[in-house]
Amino acid sequence: MRAGERMRALAAPLCLAVVACQGGNGDGGRSKVESQPSPGCTVLSELAFPPALDWLPARPGFAVSASVEPAAVQLLDARGEAPRRVEGVATLVLPDDSDGDGVAEGSGTLPSPVIDDVIVVPPALVDAGLGLITASGYEEVIWYRPDRGELASVEISVDASFAPDDFRRLPAPGEAARRTAVSTETCIKPFAPIDSTGVDYSLGAPPGAFCDAAVPGSFYARFTSGATLAAGRLFVSMSNLGSVANPAAPRFLPGAVLVFDLDLASDPAGVAPSPLAPFIETEYFNPTHVTRVEVAGRELVLVTSSGAIGIEADDPRTPEVEQGSLALTEGAVEVLDAETLAHLGSVPIGLGALTFDRLAVDPSGRVAVLGSALARELYALDLAALGEDPPDLAGAAIFDAVAPLTFAALPGGPPLTSCAPLVGGIAWNDAGDRLFVSERCDGSLSEFAFALIEDAAGRVDPQSFRWIASEPLIAPLRADTLGDQRDPGRLRIRSGRPGVDYAGPDALFLSSQPDGQACALRLESL
Amino acid sequence: MQAAGRGRAALAALGVAFAPAVRAAADERFEVERTTPPAVVEDRAPTARPEDPTGFTHVIEADEYAGEGRRVEELIETAPGVHVRRFGGPGESAEISIRGSTGAQVVVLLDGVRLNSAQSGTVDLATIPAHLVERIEVTRGGGSVQSGSDAIGGVVNIVTRRASAKPSSQASGSLGSWDTWTASLSQTAELAGHELLLGYDFFKTSGDWDFQPVSGVNPSDPGTVERINNRSEQHSGLLKLSRDLSERVRLELSDSLFYGSEGRPGLDLDSGGPLRGQREHAHQRRTRNAAQLRLHGVEATSLDLDWELRVFHRFDRSRFRDPQDPPVDSDDRNTALGARFGLEHEREGEHLGQALSLAAELRGDRLDPKWARKRERRVFGVSAQDELRLLGDRLRIVPALRFDDSEGFDAEWIPRIGASLRLASWLRLKGNAERSYRVPNFDELYLDEATLRGDPSLRPEDARNYDLGFELARAAWGPLSALSLELVGFWNDIDNTIVFQQVSPNVIKATNIPDVRSRGLELSGSARWGWLAVSGSYTRLDTEIRRNGNPLPGRPEHEADLRVALADAADRFKLVGTLLHTGEIPVNASGRTFLSGRTTFDASLRLGLHALSHWPERLGLRELAFAVTATNLTDRAVRDALSFPRPGRSLTFLLEARR
Question: How much is the pTM?
């Protein structure tokens, strides 16, 4: 073979090789991340800030928790010294099409859902175990079976009386469709288009900016936060954060609670925006959760309206780096009648920057407690005041931002200038005589005793609460604790008598750094 | 005196062109034959930093990797003690870590011009065109005496190709997987009495390789995901002019230019839809120009001084846009302007030889961001080093001291002591103890992006560096030739390490963390046996946050590389196989979460067509070679630097020519 023929013979397969060898894809072996948990814990995600934790009442000793990345919910067996994933029940990772409408989220103009909370519906309301996953970005409430780790189907219908643009991602009015989530992108038509900075945001808006052209300032709800079932309905709080161009002064649009009628007796369950009131506008900004309570035989939905919250801008004139939360508008607990959908009024809390968990209601149903996102402060309501007709809203607050229930910082924690305090989790014990509170900056767990004392008006006297102790739970948020387990979040105490009804740890809490973990805790169990 | 100096500056090339040259500066064990006689000026003039006879320096000669399609970061990671963090595939960012350092703790010089910006402190090695590089010197250990602030991990000096009056041309081109192209041209010639080098380098890729999700837990997981928005196009230019102004004075001008336009898909997620959270439209454009005027002379005055004056200027511009919510739009310009003056004096006595070096440097750094306040900082440094040669040059003791003053911080005295003991003609023991430090960069001090904050009250990082090791080198030993072996233990204690971490529920902030330690072992060696050349290195690294014993994230505990080259002396062919093993990499500071370790294999075959046939010679080509390179032969899924995905198996075809 001559040289030229040799070269041509060599060139042919090379040319094919160039075309064919577009490269591999890593099929030769997967790179993976492996984690070992802290003692007494299980790792939920290598990334920080797991958002959710709740017990599964239908399965004592089992709980559900969630991670943001991956967007997943897992069932945990918390009967042992450390919670563990349940064998045979898969971690539910949200699929690309989380609501089953045939269109994958997370591509093009559709954002992906970011899990905000997981709410386990009490078995008294629903026979089969049911969980609700609230997600923002792609706004929705996802239905799932926690004990199976599967999405659950629902039949979503929209009454023909609604306008075509009232619900951006639900079936058209008069139609129904089977989905695994209900979209919360409801067209909110506020009474007045005033945002949290006091500005009429409808002025100067471009054509087509409003979801209802006839209602200036109407907008599609966003930032799904909390959810609850009450009176055969689903209530979903929508924070409606508008612009964060200036984080020190974000602009919240009017808040809302969405209302869906439920038919839980059908299979699959039926969900439909309530023709009576598809949404209820809140009086205060930034509704971050909803809690069902039963007071004087009446089902109420209490809405935690946290108020507009910003992040402190650094003041270059001071050596410290200011970085705390700013309460820009007042917060309140708003009262809705779950039957009539009437907004009964609000219990003002003040400039407290209320935290985003549901209310911690004591087992007797008398007291509801919530925390602050900028101070070591607790606020509380006497629910008996809400059971009166009309509700005694002015007399319902036991502690508010003017006169809060406080607890001191642990020694050795970070200075205020480094970490502005934030209540992580609040929980009552099963007997209702102890209240436990975690705080994120110093990593502490505080214990309060509660013994009901009523004042002359029959309201819960603040003296009913007595601080007992504050102790380190995990490491404080200091620069030198990098790598330590720190930043405690949600706290949940198991129902039942520890040591009598069950033997294992009586509480679970979430820690957010350096990775997201769920951890067991013995508070009163031995 | 001149012979000693020439020997000290000589390349300790091991054999010919097929094994990486392990050069111990100031070692006279191996002779080198030059093709052109060196100018007296070149042999004697001080280099960009005082010679470091006791430091552990690994020299990589780029030509020895001809035909392997290596990028600069791939060349650098062959050095012991070095870990390269990559943020994707070819063309995507890569930064160096030496002995567990951060990227900002390594000073990277391009022909003596510092590339580290005062804004971020890191240098993207992917912006340096390998085809225009002649050699890379990687010095491990504290280098603050020579280089001032930042050199806690070490110093990398990248030397580009030399200007020459002798006309020569080099050209190369390649085509590879994922539509990856490169082209490079360089020309040397005489121009109006100057030695000239003109070079150009081009790189382009569509970068649309597939990769596997990290955990594969998503039920919608198709098995692989496409890397989107990953196109990259880079252009680099190099101009060098030099001439002898007199018999003892030489003038050099160099200018290197870089422009890059790259998509930035970011990290992928397990969730985040079919695109797995990759950013579809994020895009970055970067421009850099580094220019230097160098004047150096030898045997000046009756004191027989060698001297050097450098004036340098560097400009960087980085524009980043991402319209995806939340939108990002930044445009940062960094400028550095400075000058350095150095003196060196040598004398040899009957019992004592001495080389005294003095240097002074003044530099101004400036950051001009589009949406924030301008920042400036002036840095002044003076250093002195005295190399004492005793016992017939068997023992060298090198004390050194630097005074460094960075505007806004306390002035620092940086001491260093090094020693080198020649135990036998082929065995040397070396060790160093030194202090090094790093002032916070502008991002760490002044970043103000709502949830991401700098802290103006940050303290400089402060380190104590120690190393001790053996160097063995034998020209021949039994059937082996060019044998070298190096074993070094090192220990670094660093106070006030600067780390961005979440220290409040709302904000991630730059913080000082106390007491970080890194220690380990470096083993490297090379040898030849006829046509076969073998080289490799192994690094064992333990990093520790002293308070809780947790490792620092991003630093693998074990890293090893092995290179086997089979080549004939007539340059007809060269077959190379390489192995790179990287152990588990901690993902965060918990000490409990790791990226799995991996081993990858590369291979290349280079055919010297000029040696196989006469037709290249008929075309006037001195050299013509064709090569094919395969990387990641086993198609291993690799993730690096906080879990950025990297491509699988790839193939590249190269053609190189010289005349």
Answer: 0.89
Cα B164 from Cα B241, distance rounded (Å): 9
CA A149 to CA A87: how far, in whole Å? 11
- Report how far Cα A12 is from the mean position of its chain's Cα atoms: 62
The shortest CB-CB distance from A419 to any of B504, B638, B653 is to B504
Considering only CA atoms, which of B218, B195, B48 is closest in space to residue A69?
B218
Residue B250 has pLDDT above 50, yes or no: yes
**Residue B411 CB-density burial (10 A; 0-12 exposed, 13-18 middle, 19+ buried):** exposed
Summarised one tens digit per residue, pLDDT across range B115-128 is 999 999 999 999 99
Q: Summarize pLDDT for A482-516 with one digit per residue, the tens.
A: 999 999 999 999 999 998 999 999 999 999 998 88
What DSSP assignment string belongs to A338-385?
Answer: TTT--EEEEEEEES--B-SSPPEE-TTSSEEEEEBSSSSEEEEEEGGG
Q: Which residues of A touch B514 (CB under 8 A)?
A: 480
Which residues from A are below 8 Å from B614, CB to CB? none
How far apart are the C-alpha atoms of B201 and B603, rounded to whole Å?
Answer: 24
Contacts of A35 in chain B (CB under 8 A): 592-594
Closest CA of chain B from A275, distance in Å = 33
Q: What is the DSSP string of B327-383?
A: PEEEEEEEEEEEEEEEEEEEEE-SS-EEEEEEEEEEEEEEEEESSS--EEEEEEEEE
Using CB atoms, which residue from A27, A33, A373 is nearest to B595?
A: A33
Q: What is the 3-state secondary structure (H, E, C) of B224-280?
A: CEECCCCCEEEEEEEEEEEEECCCCEEEEEEEEEEEEEEECCCCCCCCCCCCCCCCC
Residue B588 has its nearest CB partner, among A46, A324, A477, at A46
The verdict on a CB contact (< 8 Å) between A33 and B209 is no
Confidence of residue B284 (pLDDT cuts 50, 70, 90): very high
